[in-house]
Amino acid sequence: TQLLEQSPQFLSIQEGENLTVYCNSSSVFSSLQWYRQEPGEGPVLLVTVVTGGEVKKLKRLTFQFGDARKDSSLHITAAQPGDTGLYLCAVPNAGNNRKLIWGLGTSLAVNP
Amino acid sequence: KAGVTQTPRYLIKTRGQQVTLSCSPISGHRSVSWYQQTPGQGLQFLFEYFSETQRNKGNFPGRFSGRQFSNSRSEMNVSTLELGDSALYLCASSVQGAASGYTFGSGTRLTVV
Description:
The complex is a heterodimer of chains A (about 110) and B (about 110).
Chain A: E1 5-7, E2 10-14, E3 19-24, E4 32-37, E5 44-49, E6 55-58, E7 61-65, E8 71-76, E9 85-92, E10 100-102, E11 106-111
Parallel strand pairs in A: 2-11
Antiparallel strand pairs in A: 1-3, 3-8, 4-5, 4-9, 6-7, 7-8, 9-10, 9-11
Chain B: E1 5-7, E2 10-13, E3 19-24, E4 31-38, E5 42-50, E6 53-57, E7 64-68, E8 74-78, E9 87-94, E10 103-104, E11 108-112
Parallel strand pairs in B: 2-11
Antiparallel strand pairs in B: 1-3, 3-8, 4-5, 4-9, 5-6, 7-8, 9-10, 9-11
């Protein structure tokens, strides 16, 4: 059983559409990180959210940490082909925060 | 500043052989972590080194080992390769470990045949 459940697993949309992907768990986290990974490359850190209810924006990307710090969402406005990639959420391991626990990711394809 | 450098990018090995992967972290980063990524399991933690000491180890067999040098460069070794070891091996560099966020290298794609 995955500690972090990401949904949807796959998403294929047209350029200009909006979308939201989710990262859910039954556990409470001290913080949560979002990464994007392009084919053949390592993940790139997008944002870290720490406070329950926190909202962070990165250009057309909006990240929200749930009030109870158990879940997070990533909303993309007017998606572009450059947004294509695997979106991963990760949290510090509760017993030992020197490693991250990862979701399996949402694979996003934005078609021109 | 230079990013995280992993070599080689691609590797094909035969079952039973051993392999050594290399990682040079960002200058000033003393923490280097290694992850294995496969489609079915996602990213799984292998180990972390900080100032030449292994701080943390994941649930992998003893065939997987690593080390860190005084210049923070790190290597991981896999002995007696199995087909199931085929994966993308990622090195992550950070100032103080996972909670502060990682900078990843491009990875080494290992294929065991």
